[in-house]
Write a structure and sequence with these properties.
Layout (H helix, E strand, L loop, with lengths): L2 H10 L4 E7 L5 E7 L7 H4 L1 E4 L13 E6 L5 E2 L7 E9 L11 H15 L4 E13 L1 E6 L4 E6 L38 H13 L4 E6 L6 E6 L2 E2 H21 L3 E3 L13 E9 L2 E2 L1 E3 L6 H10 L7 E7 L3 E6 L4 E3 L5 H15 L6 E5 L7 E4 L1 H13 L1
Helix pairs in contact: 3-5, 4-5
């Protein structure tokens, strides 16, 4: 989306307020809002000023001036505000030099994407997080001079199985026991509808979703899965994800939390992340057991730098060794042991005899003492024709 398209979107939806969002050092979305009179194409170049000293871990008070520069591709209508509100995710910059701020997490992610491309190893890193969270009906905490405590509660909590004083009156049962929340149907799973509302709201803001379900713990542990995306896009999606989960929960009089261990004696909350590196539309690591040899694969890619423009990926073969895939459907079959030395041998041959530019389908280095070159069918046919003519 271009700045002009953002203005058109705002006009179409009769936007009254523009919400400016950015991520602080600890990963929390911060924001301030401006009227639509401030929404001009120049905003996407000049930005808006704010006090950086009030953001945790950022600027000193004597050097607090900073600017937010909205990313037009992130424009989206906020699904929770009563007043029509357009949301823009921003990058942080120096107000004088316009240099991007080193402590801005979005800038860090953008630099990581640029670095990946600069290495020649790949052009895209895909990330797929699986974020878990709890939905509680009651959250209380206090830290005074005479006491300190926190308490959470949920109608689903197994500790409420014998409680007759809850709002449900009478107690209807269906409380999943510790570590048995994964994943019975309703009525044991009482959060189906609220998770569906969360998922559908995420789709409204443009996030590709995959599924949702109850998680292992009692008392409302949940997971909603979104489709993988490039690093910066994925991070923006995850910020929307958390924002939507918390606001939908609040709309139902509940509290959602991503804290790692709110309950004793039951599963905590995590977020493991699937990662892959792609180049030319193909994954660099594939095959049985590939994920266990990522470091070896990265070292192979580093050695292959002289032919990086032709490199299309590595395929793990039988959980024993790697095939290196090049363009023109060429394959370098590397041995189980010392694959890097074998690859160096191929590169030396290529440097002296230019073998990779020849009509060769496979360079078999599985036995490094006896390299084998397999010609293409066309090359073999030329050889057979030549022999017949002799």
């Amino acid at each position: 989306m271009t700045p002009k398209e953002v203005l058109d979107l705002a006009k179409k939806n009769e936007v009254k307020i523009v919400d400016i969002k950015f991520t602080d050092l600890l990963g929390t979305w911060q924001h301030f809002s401006v009227p639509t009179s401030e929404l001009e194409e120049s905003l996407f170049e000049d930005g808006l000023g704010f006090d950086g000293s009030s953001i945790r871990g950022w600027q000193a008070i004597n050097n607090s001036d900073m600017i937010v520069i909205p990313d037009p591709t992130t424009a989206m209508m906020d699904p929770f505000m009563n007043v029509p509100t357009l949301s823009l995710i921003c990058n942080i910059s120096d107000p004088i030099t316009k240099e991007k701020y080193s402590k801005d997490p979005r800038n860090v992610a953008q630099k990581a994407e640029a670095y990946l491309k600069s290495t020649g190893l790949g052009d895209t890193g895909y990330f797929g997080p699986e974020a878990e969270f709890f939905i509680f009906d009651d959250v209380r905490y206090q830290n005074d001079s005479n006491q300190a405590f926190y308490a959470v509660d949920s109608e689903e909590g197994i500790w409420n199985s014998g409680n007759s004083g809850r709002d449900e009156e009478p107690n209807l049962g269906y409380k999943p026991r510790h570590k048995e929340g994964y994943f019975p149907t309703s009525p044991t799973d009482s959060l189906q509808d609220i998770r569906s509302e969360m998922l559908l709201t995420m789709e409204e803001v443009g996030i590709e979703m995959e599924c949702h379900h109850h998680e292992v713990a009692t008392a409302g542990q949940c997971e909603i899965d979104m489709r993988f995306a490039p690093l910066v896009k994925c991070a923006d999606n995850l910020m929307w994800y958390k924002y939507i989960v918390k606001n939908v929960a609040k709309r139902h009089g509940k509290t959602a939390t991503f804290m790692p261990k709110p309950l004793y004696g039951d599963n905590g909350t995590g977020m493991h992340v699937h990662q892959s590196i792609w180049k030319g539309g193909k994954p660099l690591f594939a095959g049985d057991g590939a994920k266990g040899y990522i470091l070896e694969a990265l070292n192979i890619y580093k050695v292959a730098e002289p032919i990086s423009e032709r490199l299309r990926g590595l395929r793990r073969m039988g959980d024993r060794r790697w095939d290196m895939i090049l363009d023109r459907n060429q394959i370098i079959q590397l041995p189980e042991f010392e694959p890097i030395n074998a690859l160096k041998h191929v590169l030396v041959l290529n440097s002296s005899q230019n073998i990779l530019s020849r009509d060769i389908v496979t360079i078999d280095m599985r036995d490094t003492s006896r390299p084998v070159l397999r010609l293409s069918d066309a090359a073999n046919e030329i050889i057979r024709t030549s022999e017949l003519m002799e």
